[in-house]
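Sharing a chain and its predicted structure for anyone who wants a worked example. Both blocks are below, sequence first, tokens second.
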Amino acid sequence: MISRDDQIGSIASAIDQAAQASSKFEAVRALRTTLLCGIPSDVPVEEITDLPVKAAIWAFDYRISVQRDNDRQRAVVEPRFRGASGETDPPKVAAVAEEVVEVWHALASKVTSPWGLARLQHLLFERRFGRAHEYAIAAAKSYLAAAMNWEIGLDRAGLLGIALRVARSVNSRDQADLIVSQLMSDARQELSGDGRRPGVFMRLMESILAERNPPSGVDDLLKDAFTKYADPFIRDNVLRLQIARASDAEAKNQLWGKLVEVWNEAAKDSQGIVRAAHLKKALECAEGSQDRELVERAAANLQGLRKDDLGLATFTASTSIDDAEIERLLAPMGEAGNWQQALIDLYQIYGPATGGLTQNKARVEQHAREFVLSGLFSKELLGGDGLPRYRAQSDEDRDAMALAEQESYNIQIFAPILAMALSRIADTYGIPSESELAEFFAQAPLTDEDLAHALARAFIRYWTGDAEGAAFTIIPRIETIVRNLVIAMDRGVYRIQRDQKPGQYPGLGYLLDILKVHGMDESWHRCVLTVCANPAGGWNIRNEVAHGFIPNIGIPPAAVVLQLAVYLWSLNAIQDDAADD
């Protein structure tokens, strides 16, 4: 039976052999293949009973990277996997059994390759084993030596970055200076070569510029990089590094202007949606500069786009419902007995056009499970004018957008049914007069005579063929009704003038949230929000109409907003026998 010392020597030889690979990935793969030879593939590493083998595999399974912590960078050692319940694979370095650390220590005394030594010495430093300070200095030296064994590239730049941070963590100035010198040399070589690998150069510069006092020559390197790399995304990165280093306001302003011009030039060389994206980026950069004149010029360029310039494709799909099913859906309107009850049934029987909130969330979750790839792509929503409106910034934003998209899909399916239901009311009972409708709506204590007549005229417009006029006049009344409901709750929401901003009520979305807190049905809350005031994937029809971005509103959308008006009106309506007259 092989002795423990001989086994440690054998594993050390495997590490040295793997270190001869041309990349970090190939080295780790070669080592795992050697160490796992003879072990069934279905056996998890933590269940391997051979301690030296398990300890060696774990040692090279950790993910070591340089991360920014506030304004400083530091080398971070993390398990390659972290579960939702906090479990990790391999264990956190601080939680590794002492016997495993002893194996790392034994291997460090036998391994000769800088790549293997760097990893083992770094782990011993991270665990604060023995003379931890000495292990850190040794690890920095080994990382530098390992980097020199590989060609200039991302792996080499990564090793040098880790080496620098480890050296700085123990104030090893001499070692850090050597590493910085090598980083500068690699950066110069990368720029002077025929190849174009901006990722390698930028990785090297990130490490150099993380220094408290970067060496002289850095600014010249950045200028040369801007000249060499024509890609606007790389030039954006280079200029932002220059802006961060600029010492006076005038120099910063010039660099901001140069950055905006980079994206304007990229837009000139592009077409369609790509051109729009570049112009938007130019505006974002201008806003970052806080230069009003620069912002105005960039905004003017973006505003100059037209929807036809975007080159977007239109996809349409249709679905059919047989006549018998349509008649079944419309039957409640004819069975209501009178138009008053039919208007109430319009929301009570059909419910929100967006559907139920619980079902919608379930569909969104199902879609996320079944179509994983679609969830990985970023989406940007355009407004009616073709300009960018909304882009999710977080997982919560993406979830909200997915929910609004599901709700909007439901509206498209159900809006024609609502349109036919409204028409069936007029076909069955005739079109009420303005005075009759106003009297009906005036039953609600919060609906004064002017509002009642305004609601009445909107419905008459719809029934007489002016669906667009009905929608344009009912949409602002929706906000009136919501505001009246909030005021009736004695909620102080009016905001007096602040500087140049006049006194005003908060937006519709804010007011709707107050109603939700006070018991408004969540599904109806989502419906009003998504239809009227939700830019994150919803119709947002209130704002789009108010700004003139919707050239025409058809019959189905008009029916949806009329139904919303009736529902909101009903929240404070007096239910009496009037509907039975």
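Comments welcome. The first strand starts at residue 63 and ends at 69.
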